[in-house]
Amino acid sequence: MxxxxxxxxxxxxxxxxxxxxxxxxxxxxxxxPIRRHEESLLRRIYDRVxxxxxxxxxxxxxxxxxxxxxxxxxxxxxxxxxxxxxxxVLEKVMNLxxxxxxxxxxxxxxxALGAMDLSQMCVRQVxxxxxxxxxxxxxxxxxxxxxxxxxxxxxxxxxxxxRI
Length: 164
Prior knowledge:
This protein is an all-alpha fold and about 160 residues long. It has one domain: CATH 1.10.3380.10. It is globular.
């Protein structure tokens, strides 16, 4: 079911923000608990994360997932109950991102690199949103020694594809 949703939702020009939205909206995250006292805390987290949405719902598990992933990348300190929820999210997200990579790469979309980059953000807890973090430092198969071989234009296109 999730792969079908990804096939319909992901496009050739899907960037990091779109990937975050699509993955966070996966059915696997419907069980993320929403507690009564959390709304004000989630609002404060939302104010501190780099990626914003047009419509927010602090009582939706998918939105909470969206926030918890960004809190992970941004290395925000969370209270124990949110740390437990975040662990639950991080446990599931890698398989979902692999499915995104499969869907995107099966269509030969360069934006599959964005899904790989998001996977690395989850593993390494490094935000791609920082200006000095580029594809050459966050995607494991592109090393600094390979930059001259790849060429400046190709790296620029990759960076453009991965930007929010």
